[in-house]
Amino acid sequence: EKARVMEWERQGQVEHQSQNGGGLYVKVMTDEQMELLRRQISVYATICEQLVEMHKAITTQQDLAGMRLGSLYCDPFMTSAGHKITSRQRWTPTPVQLQILEQIFDQGNGTPSKQKIKEMTNELTQHGPISETNVYNWFQNRRARSKRKQSVPVQNNAESEVETDVESPKEKKTKPEDIQSFENSAPRAENMYFQGPEMGTEMHCLDTQPN
Amino acid sequence: EKARVMEWERQGQVEHQSQNGGGLYVKVMTDEQMELLRRQISVYATICEQLVEMHKAITTQQDLAGMRLGSLYCDPFMTSAGHKITSRQRWTPTPVQLQILEQIFDQGNGTPSKQKIKEMTNELTQHGPISETNVYNWFQNRRARSKRKQSVPVQNNAESEVETDVESPKEKKTKPEDIQSFENSAPRAENMYFQGPEMGTEMHCLDTQPN
DNA sequence: GATTTATGAATGAAGG
DNA sequence: CCTTCATTCATAAATC
Hints:
Two copies of one chain form a homodimer.
Chain A: H1 7-11, E1 14-17, E2 24-29, H2 31-65, H3 95-106, H4 114-124, H5 132-147, H6 176-184, H7 199-203
Antiparallel strand pairs in A: 1-2
The structure holds a DNA duplex (16 and 16 nucleotides).
């Protein structure tokens, strides 16, 4: 039942749109499925809101006592896949950092100058460890990869080698610019974009000020 | 407006399926949009889990139990949901594709150029769904893993440590020690808020599974 | 059907 | 900038 949300992903038919000569695969979902999704998302939104509120209240009232409970959360489930915590040897942007970076990136002001990077780094430091090199690399990678960011049409190959006479259904990476503009049409995406699993690394240290 | 998440609903095309005689309207979304949605949901799921865990820890510890937030744990899907709510489908090579790929790989022609990948993809499409990205990834992984396989079975002498000595044959590897200056300091919970909790309206307490 | 393994994919960093 | 590599994550497949 937990996978109900994305159920449509599996049962949804795959439509072959043969417009423009080049085929384009798209997923199809019914209104029912969409409504289901909408509800599920709403649930999450509400829960998050409530939890955040509560947590705020609790930590505030607890702040008086000056209790430190940071390390207490460490284990619960930041290891969603049962991995070791200490294995990080390379920088990983915190959710907040990611948000900020994405935001700046979306402003499309091309390559950030060295000066700008310095500023950014300075700002981002407030949200976690980061270096100018990290920022620089991030922008490099982000730009480079935004080009082939086209969604990979991963379709299940239920049966082996069906001779589908398709030409090249998944090559919609015609122009990077097109994709770019397409991405812009999904506005708030970046604001919510935290890449789940890594988040735990930051969250568990909820104590605001280690004295 | 709380319906931002469903933005794709507006931009997605609407397909008219005239099957069954009676027309049936369905929404259409691209893979990219779907991936976006998936991530958004994943974000919520993770945040919820985190918050719940933290909250549990706090309330358990201080035991003052003044606030009754137990109702928040009541959600049926929270406990079992997690990251599993949104699952990504991934490409799996068909036997024939795999065979071809292995064959090409064995020819030792190192890194396949972009052009070569395109050709291969084109060829492999005859034997099942596949994209250039898939091919690219496959070669990357194949090479990386064949390299790693080599370095492992080298030790057969008087050996005592068999746990952390599987270093890659590189010497420029970073320090194995995790002297990382303590993950991150204090990412306040507020930082995790997303500017759109207002999208939940019709939902309050879960237990919504339309089962 | 719960765990473990194999492997496709994501990404930070280095090289050119 | 672009490409490549190393590492990690997530999940399909395999195993128990």
